[in-house]
Amino acid sequence: MRLTILGSGTNVHPTRAAAGYLVHTDHNILLDFGPRTLMNLIKTGVNRHRITHILFSHFHADHFSDFITFFFDAVIYAKYGGGHRPGMTLIGPKGTIRLLRSIMQNFPSFSSAPFHVAFKEVSDKPFSIGDTRIIPKPVVHVSDLLSVGYRIEYRGKALVYSGDSQYCEALVRLCTDADLAVLDCSFPANRPGPAHLHAGQCGQVAKEAGIGQLVLSHFYPIADRYDVGAQAGSQYGGKIWKGKDLLTIRV
Question: What string of H, E and C letters represents the secondary structure of 56-76?
Fold first, then answer.
């Protein structure tokens, strides 16, 4: 299992793409698809026209908006690019089907996609993509929007992606004994903000869950002005990565 960070920032960040991650198991699985992540996906060399599963943690624009460009590109490729494009399964929390069906029905050319598009809403029941087991878990982000984190298990290894989350017991449980966890580190510990973890809380989750390696990501610009790795390390003694775009980590 490999993780490649497509975007380690937020909606408008001067040097980082917004949230997006590529996980390679027996499938290439996308976790979120924020602005500017599509170009980073292309830079990885992975054939975007063979990607069949996208998992959304929630539908704030910084986790979603490049999907629009990706899907339009897929339609054009399948119609005029001379190649076959397999179907696509779009997965997310409650509300996913209503939102995505509305997009498919109303965006020009989307409703005539020449490949099958399936939608799946998740709560906390595990499901499989090939030999990869996915465990979704609702986490606490903002009161008016459902958000989920994902645990991905493959060949005895486990990777967790928090999505956007505050500190909560559900996130600690999702991360328990994971080999690697990618956590929302929007703010430094000394300048915390609303609705997200700060660096100290990322370290706290990693310590309480007993994870193997911690990846800090989803940085607001203020987080880059402080040593968030050291702040997380005050709570957690394991390996800490400060995420950056196109960083690849083998799990």
Answer: CCCCCHHHCCHHHHHHHHHHH
The Cα 96–Cα 109 span in angstroms is: 20
* Residue 183: partners with Cβ closer than 8 Å, 6 or more residues away: 162, 165, 197, 202, 205, 206, 214, 215, 216, 217
Residues 6+ positions from 45 with CB-CB distance below 8 Å: none
Q: What type of residue sits at position 72?
A: F
Strands 88-92 and 117-121, sheet pairing: parallel
Q: In this structure, which amino acid lies at residue 229?
A: G
Q: How confident is the model at residue 161 (pLDDT cuts 50, 70, 90)?
A: very high
Question: Strand order in 117-121's β-sheet?
Answer: 117-121, 88-92, 53-55, 28-33, 20-24, 2-7, 248-250
Please check whether residue 121 is in contact with residue 92, taking contact to mean a CB–CB distance below 8 angstroms: yes
Widest CA span in the chain? 54
Cα separation, 40 vs 60, in Å, equals: 20
Q: Is the pLDDT of residue 93 over 90?
A: yes
Predicted confidence at residue 133, as pLDDT, reads: 98
Domain range list for the chain = 2-250
Which pLDDT score, from 0 to 100, does residue 83 have?
A: 76
Rounded distance, CA 175 to CA 171, Å? 6
What is the structure's pLDDT at 81? 85
The amino acid that residue 220 corresponds to is Y
Average pLDDT of span 21-47: 98
Identify the CATH number of the domain defined by range 2-250. Answer: 3.60.15.10
How confident is the model at residue 182, as a pLDDT? 98
